Amino acid sequence: MIFFQTENINPVPMPDELKKGEDAIKSFQNLGFDEAMTNIANSLVDFAFKLLIAIVVFYIGRFVIRKIYRMMLSVFVRRKMDASLSTFVLSLVKMLLYFILIVTVIGIIGIETSSFLAIFASAGVAIGMALSGTLQNFAGGVLILLLKPYKVGDYIEAQGYAGTVKEIQIFHTVINTIDNKAIIIPNGGLSTSSINNYSLEQYRRVDWTVCLSYGTDYERAEQEILRILNSDIRVVKKYIEEDRELRLQMHLEQDKQQEAEAMLKEEAKAGWWKRMRMRRRRKSEAFKKALQQQQEMNQPVTIEKVDRSPFVGLGEMADSSINFTVRAWTHSSNYWSLFFDMNKRFYTELPKAGFEFPFPQMDVHLTGAEN
Q1: What are the backbone dihedrals phi and psi of residue 325, each rounded to the nearest 5 degrees, phi first?
Q2: Residues 35-65, buried b or exposed e (16+ Cβ, 10 A)?
Q3: Across the chain, where does the E strand assignment appear?
Q4: How many CA atoms lie within 13 A of 241 on its CB side?
Q5: Model-level pTM?
Q6: 255-311 confidence digits (pLDDT tens)
Q7: Within 13 Å of residue 208, how many CA atoms lie on the same side as its CB?
Q8: Which of 53, 116, 348, 367 is found 20 to 30 A from 64 (Cα to Cα)?
Q9: How far apart are the first and last CA of the chain?
């Protein structure tokens, strides 16, 4: 007779989920039909109660999210935040709040949320690695919209291109060149590189080089060039602050004239009682403006003014001419118009005053040949 000796083999551990399922099946097997139906009914009632609570929480959460959205929108509107940035921030906050709400609702129903969070985290890492360049442009767009190194309408030079900013998007900036080409520049490079913003300052210096022939009377040429510059209203005569005040006064007078014309038209249509009230209001506003101007004039001036008078100097004694360096300050909006107009006036008025523009010259000396 043959005997087989068997060894004790350790059983493979069973996962917890299988154990729970096996225990539930055994519990149902040990129960009778009535008890099993009672347990099923209790489970359905419990699930329905959790589902009802989840639905209520969802609608309450959606109501709260809408309130938060409207509150943030009103704050952005009052503070006059950029439209592109406000739209992006509101969309991001709305998506984040809805994600938190959905995860909360799923947890109330009884579904494990850890697996969902792990899936979203891994998907976020994969998307971030695949879109690293796009995310860099996205971060650059957010920085540009927050820090505002330039705005729509500014004339800038960056990344080898120069033009007027047409749009500032989250991922790129669109500029229009002088010949009306639309250039799309990614925001990642713009946020980390140097930008020359020509529109940031209100006043700029215009430079010219005027070439006159040798033998020209320097003093008389300097006076004539200064006369041409000072005769133009766009040129700053001495201080930028005075020119700014003059421009502001001109704009205020224009606005006052337009307002007066509109008031007269409104008075002509209104009755005598309304006309009297409008005249009283106009006198009161004029008195308040005069009082405010008087207070501003009495305030001490703490800003040191810098002399920005037109300048003429001898820049170079070239081979065929003496070159005058001419400089003048003007408002940025008048830069190119003043530059070209002055070139035209130098060309037409200097010869009339007796000055000559030289041509390239070469002196040739001949020596006698030996016999």
Answers
A1: -90, 120
A2: eeeeeeeeeeeeeeeeeeebeeeeeebeeeb
A3: 155-158, 161-168, 172-176, 182-186, 196-197, 203-212, 311-317, 322-331
A4: 7
A5: 0.54
A6: 666 666 666 666 566 666 666 676 677 666 666 666 565 555 554 444 567 888 999
A7: 27
A8: 116
A9: 147
